[in-house]
Design goal:
18% strand; five-stranded mixed beta sheet; binds zinc ion; Nucleotidyltransferase, domain 5; 12 helices; alpha/beta; globular; binds 5'-O-[(R)-(carboxyoxy)(hydroxy)phosphoryl]adenosine; 354 residues
Length: 354
């Protein structure tokens, strides 16, 4: 009797182990992202293979206001989150999901709350681990996602230097391994994406500014004289002086919009590339990893590739801007390391990295 019970227990352990073994090689994570103006859900296998990636953008709604309206954003997330998750899960069996990863900060508190609460509900209903993910860290993990257009993306070599350039952040982070970060630099005022958005408004190009400036710049020449904030002996950035200088130029009148866009874009890119390359040389990293919406800019990536002494990994444009595949990829590495969050997970709108 005693032996039979022991055998039974052993069998359970083995079955459990086999299940874990199976999960370890094919672990599927559902990622949820609602930090700003994209409602997104995605399923990623083993932190690399995208099985589904759904992004419902609110850009058209916010464009009429010239920027993201927080109240409108959270209400829109509420309306779209369930259909977005359902679409991401359309061809995936819920029983195959091993964890729910969700962005809990930084971002708009009301928007983050929608994602975090739906993630808790799903994790509870399906009895799955919940993993709160830092949005900035998840941007970096876009570099792990498999993509035929991303060159050698996925073969990340530590230590690497991560430049995160989004609408809210411009961070230069030394990454020594999974979850091991040291912040080397940050913006002292406007983020790079924010600067693009403000410059586009000054030039009457609409929202979001990055793609609009890039489009206008393609038919202009960078002939206008604009300042660059080098902030010598620091890896920090500053873009607000450049924005003000552009405003003064435009205010005087007679400025060609394509030339102004090209001059502004060149100034931002020169500083981002030179300072990142300098930090890469000083820290002796093996690679530079680009991420965040501004990394979708083709002139920026071309200059990085031309100037960097080490290989530069660049996610495809649709994985640079906000998405949930990067959240799922990041969550996978946390889950693999044995980390998970409790149901008391709260949003942290000013969360930072490193
Ligand atoms: O990472 P992201 O999608 O959202 C945040 O976490 O903020 O980044 C959005 C930012 C916006 O400021 C947008 O203007 C900028 O990325 N952006 C670009 C480009 N595409 C998006 N900036 C420059 N060139 C682009 N092609
Ligand atoms: Zn982002």
């Amino acid at each position: 009797m005693h032996t039979a019970r022991l055998c039974g227990l052993l069998l359970f352990r083995v079955l459990d182990m086999c299940r874990c073994q199976g999960n370890r090689t094919k672990m599927k994570v559902l990622g949820i992202e609602t930090s700003c103006d994209e409602t997104a859900a995605a399923v990623v296998e083993d932190g690399r293979r995208i099985l589904s990636n759904v992004v419902a953008s609110q850009i058209d709604i916010h464009a009429r206001y010239g920027g993201v309206v927080p109240e409108v954003a959270s209400r829109q997330h509420l309306l779209t989150i369930i259909p977005v998750i359902e679409q991401a899960m359309r061809d995936v069996d819920w029983r195959d999901i091993d964890g729910i990863a969700v962005t809990f900060g930084p971002g708009l508190a009301g928007s983050l709350l929608v994602g975090v609460n739906i993630a808790k509900a799903v994790a509870l209903a399906r009895k799955l681990p919940l993993i709160g993910v830092n949005h900035l860290e998840s941007h970096i993990y876009a570099n792990w996602l498999e993509s035929p257009s991303a060159g050698d993306s996925g073969s990340v070599d530590f230590p690497c230097l991560c430049l995160i350039v989004s609408g809210g952040h411009s961070d230069l982070v030394l990454m020594k391994g999974h979850g091991r970060y040291e912040k080397l630099g940050r913006t002292r005022d406007d983020a790079a994406g924010e600067a693009f958005d403000k410059a586009a408004r000054i030039l009457g190009l609409g929202y979001p500014g990055g793609p609009a400036i890039e489009r206008a710049a393609s038919s202009g020449t960078p002939s206008l004289s604009l300042p660059r904030a080098w902030l010598r002996n620091s890896h920090d950035f500053s873009f607000s002086g450049l924005k003000t200088a552009l405003w003064h130029l435009v205010d005087k009148g007679g400025v060609s919009v394509p030339d102004a866009a090209a001059s502004f874009q060149t100034a931002v890119i020169e500083v981002l590339v030179a300072k990142t390359v300098e930090a890469a040389r000083q820290s002796g990293v093996r690679q530079i990893l680009l991420s965040g919406g501004v990394a979708a800019n083709k002139s920026l990536t071309a200059r990085f590739v031309a100037k960097s002494p080490v290989p530069v990994l660049i996610p495809p444009s649709h994985l640079c801007t906000d998405n949930a595949a990067m959240v799922a990829a990041c969550g996978y590495y946390h889950l693999r390391a044995g980390a998970s969050s409790g149901y008391d997970l709260d949003v942290v709108s000013s969360l930072s990295i490193g």
